[in-house]
């Protein structure tokens, strides 16, 4: 009997890559990104992924149905689900993809309706569209989904990698091929350090003329080099290595959610995160999924998904963690073995939750202050404020105080009371102003929605070809995809 038939799913942590998008450029040293936009193809890929997740985890007849989450016929329950998307400087690519995925996961329902006093029934627009709240995570304020940009220690590691004997040998081996790519790069410079695979991939998908002229083997070779490059940049030999920073910043949230799901009194059943391909490389490296040989050490496809299931044996005992992976639209979900310290994989597909948490807890980067210290960053991404010393306000305080991080300026209780008081005062003032101005009437209910982007897509049509571009397509010395 398979282990799937002797365990039940208590909840899941879902990591999903964004769908097809316009060309994105990243600086080769610190991976600072340009803007990009999701395409209708990308939205469909995300929507289909949402449908796949729905059929596996929300279908009451599925062996992997999440217990207690409510079935596929029920409405979205915000109390049991967390949805977040990496803002990542991509002008909403991952957020928009998450919206499309949520439409597939919780499609319109006639139950999304209200009965009025006059006896009529009003259904939400678009046949009962369900508005799923998504937390847009700004990487300048929260490092939990985006660990690499502006991480000085990680950039220094990259420079050392680019100067290593292994890299120089690979660059020498690929020099003739990279030279042959020049006619297909629209004047963009190329070398192994500054791969332009993303430009080729976007053009190959969306530009019929380009796709017909590019030798078929070139895309395969370019992808192989990009995979080799990115794996070496975003994977490290030790879980706590700086090369794994893209995954390490996500570990605290992942581990906390897995533990919350295992607690029957908590009620949390799902955490969904829309992220770039980079944390996939780090996390799958740390958990030994690449080492198991079931997944290649490569950039995951658009709309790929990694699901960490928390399962409870029917006979009782400790909950276990199982990995389920789907590498893009054309793949199906399949179980992937894990191998890491204190777990060599011989115990099967299911890892005891305590083993999993113990193996990765120390590697997690659980705050901005911790990220600043690990990355040797003192200014960017909130570090200047997070690392600022406390300035005493009285002579007595000056005599007894020591310089510490500003993140410890208030105790949690004191900060809570102070924050609540200030928030009440400011909210009252704002509401009074709005009522006075006539903007808000008594009895009105506001539902906050994320602001739409000023510019969604830019397209130029040229006969049978479409060129997708961003404002920085001509920037020299930038590379690689991000979402």
UniProtKB/TrEMBL annotation:
Keywords, in A-Z order: Membrane, Transmembrane, Transmembrane helix
GO molecular function, one term: phosphatase activity
Transmembrane region(s): 415-448
Taxonomy, superkingdom: Eukaryota
InterPro entries (alphabetical): His_PPase_superfam, Histidine_acid_phosphatase
Protein name: Uncharacterized protein
Organism of this sequence: Hermanssonia centrifuga
